[in-house]
Design goal:
Layout: H1 5-33, H2 56-104, H3 115-133, E1 145-147, E2 156-163, E3 168-173, E4 177-182, E5 186-190, E6 197-202, E7 208-213, E8 220-225, E9 230-234, E10 241-242, E11 246-247, E12 267-275, E13 278-285, E14 289-294, E15 303-306, E16 320-325, E17 330-331, E18 340-344, E19 349-351, E20 356-358, E21 366-372, E22 375-380, E23 384-389, E24 397-400, E25 404-410, E26 419-425, E27 433-439, E28 449-454, E29 458-463, E30 469-474, E31 477-483
Parallel strand pairs: 6-10, 12-17
Antiparallel strand pairs: 1-28, 2-31, 3-4, 4-5, 5-6, 7-8, 8-9, 9-11, 12-13, 13-14, 14-15, 16-18, 18-19, 19-20, 21-22, 22-23, 23-24, 25-26, 26-27, 27-28, 29-30, 30-31
Helix pairs in contact: 1-2
């Protein structure tokens, strides 16, 4: 069936109209989605075209060109519009930021960095952080800690409390510093203000049993270890965590020297003396070995003694519990060892040569030993404090107390030459631990002040070097009291007037 020329012309006209409708609809959709107002224009392909009578093949090619040409034009407009919106800000941002990045990156020559200055700056920063963050102290519960004031004491004031959060083995105090030995290491705290903060951390290969400030050098700390070693740490502002600068050997060729005996058990006593004009350390271990060391060289003892070497009686199982030195700080030779008083686990007192110097008829275990004035003071398990004089073997005074005294600490200072603090554990006070202050000049048979009572275990007490602060370690907390010279008992006694 053949199609006439008229029918073909009508069919093409219908297709053209349909195409125009689709293009108008497409243009309306694009204008509706555009955020900016657009000027409506009629593309050239919407203009009416003159009808021509041409061949079929020619007309078909013209139709194809009419269909494709608008697509290219519309896509090009949309593409340009979208790119303009998306890329203008990004391009300008890259141009602005590129110079700033180049200016901010500056490389410093490695040789220009001073390691010493860097360490000092880091140390100061850490100290400042410690000082800023350790601002609140932990106050013990009222039910466990009672500060006794008013009725029994005057001149005692609770100054600050600090929670160490770990077990404490030994403490030593100065006016502005506090040395604390824990079960694993030690810390030096700044105690110049009520806000205590750590300044130095001391590391050790063995547990520190005795920790002391150097009497002749403020920048040194001396420690006696559980394995029998002696260590010296030097404090400096460039470091916070410190290892010992000097330490004694444990197993070396020195062991072959018969005149030298090293400590093989824990250190129970440390002190410093000027021997022949040289600063020396005197140490005693639990197994009865006394050694003298130079503070400049700990490789080998200057002198070594076995305390009970000359005793003929059986000394099996005899161990040294504590010791105290009652002589002068400046000596010549080694004869001073006779002024070192030792308490054994047999309840007797010896000097460092092994000679028995004091013996109580009623033998009881000795809990603590201290020098108070010209007296040697001991506390015993029979609820007594005993006073001994240097030239008298027999007991000088026997003082009954209402508790077992676990520790005795001398209060330094000329005005307090016969004052000391005690820690007592009594069943008469509901099992509480009591810290009292005594003054043998005022009262002999009772204390002049009660500092505190607590349910917590008190492991150690210590006065600072001037005697105006008393440090008490209750469980894991450190409590510091101010003690001034106005300390006195509230009630006078005509019966007990002291020594």
């Amino acid at each position: 069936m053949s199609i006439s020329s008229t029918d073909r012309q009508q069919l093409l006209e219908q297709k053209r109209q349909r195409l125009q409708e689709l293009k108008q609809k497409r243009l309306q959709q694009l204008q509706a989605s555009s955020p900016l107002p657009t000027k409506e224009t009629t593309p050239s392909f919407f203009e009416p075209q003159t009808k021509k009578s041409v061949d079929v093949s020619t007309q078909t090619q013209s139709d194809v060109s009419v269909i494709d040409t608008p697509k290219v034009i519309v896509e090009k407009e949309v593409s340009r519009y979208d790119k303009a919106v998306q890329t203008i800000d990004l391009v300008s941002q890259e141009v602005v930021e590129a110079p700033e990045l180049e200016q901010s990156v500056k490389f410093v020559d490695k040789q220009e960095i001073s390691e010493t200055e860097l360490n000092e700056a880091l140390t100061k920063s850490i100290k400042l952080i410690n000082k800023l963050h350790v601002t609140n102290t932990v106050v013990l519960e009222n039910g466990k800690l009672a500060h006794i004031t008013g009725d029994t004491t005057s001149g005692i004031e609770k100054w600050t409390t600090f929670d160490a959060k770990q077990g404490i083995v030994s403490i030593d105090s100065r006016s502005d510093s506090l040395a604390v030995a824990f079960t694993d290491d030690a810390t030096i705290y700044n105690a110049s203000t009520a806000t205590i903060f750590p300044e130095y951390y001391l590391n050790s290969l063995s547990q520190i049993e005795v920790l002391k400030f150097d009497k002749f050098n403020d920048g040194r700390i001396i420690g006696g270890l559980k394995n029998g070693g002696i260590c010296i740490w030097e404090l400096n502002d460039a470091e916070i965590s410190l290892m010992p600068v000097l330490s004694t050997p444990l197993y070396t060729s020195v062991m072959n020297n018969k005149s030298v005996t090293l400590h093989l058990s824990k250190i129970v006593f440390l002190t410093q003396l000027l021997i022949d004009g040289n600063v020396c350390i005197v140490s005693i271990s639990q197994d009865g070995v006394l050694n003298i060391w130079s503070t400049n060289l700990l490789a080998e003892p200057k002198a070594s003694f076995k305390v009970f070497a000359n005793r003929e009686s059986n000394i099996d199982g005899l161990q040294i519990a504590s010791a105290v030195y009652i002589g002068s700080d400046e000596v010549v030779g080694t004869s001073f060892i006779s002024d070192v008083i030792i308490s054994g686990n047999d309840g007797k007192l010896y000097n460092a040569t092994g000679e028995l110097i004091h013996e109580d008829p009623s033998i009881s275990m000795i809990h603590s030993l201290a020098k108070i004035g010209n007296y040697v003071v001991t506390s015993h398990s029979d609820w007594t404090i005993k006073l001994w004089t240097k030239d008298q073997i027999e007991l000088f005074r026997d003082i009954p107390v209402p508790y077992i005294v676990e520790d005795i600490v001398l209060r330094p200072g000329k005005s307090a030459s016969l004052q000391f603090a005690t820690v007592g554990h009594s069943n008469l006070t509901n099992g509480k631990l009591v810290v009292d202050i005594w003054d043998l000049k005022r009262k002999l048979y009772s204390s002049i002040a009660t500092v505190m009572e607590t349910d917590d275990e008190i492991t150690s007490i210590a006065f600072n070097d001037v005697g105006d602060k008393l440090v008490v370690v209750a469980k894991n907390s450190i409590i510091i009291y101010k003690v001034d010279n106005s300390l006195k008992e509230s009630k006078a006694s005509d019966f007990d007037k002291g020594i």
